Amino acid sequence: MDMRAMEDDFKVCLCRNKTKKEVIDFILENEIKTLDELREQGNVGNKCGACSEDLEQLLQMAYE
What we know:
globular; 3 helices; 64 residues; Arc Repressor Mutant, subunit A; mainly alpha; 2 strands
């Protein structure tokens, strides 16, 4: 899925009920650089893992 095309209120992680905007804001505020850091510190993508590819895209987008 192309995360750039998704609205800010798109639910990226359904298990943790996190939106695209919430995740990007968290990444930037906490200087998250890796998916592992995001999973551990952000409590996102660490339950079923189905959103891992989307989270990777958000990590890249946050620092562009």
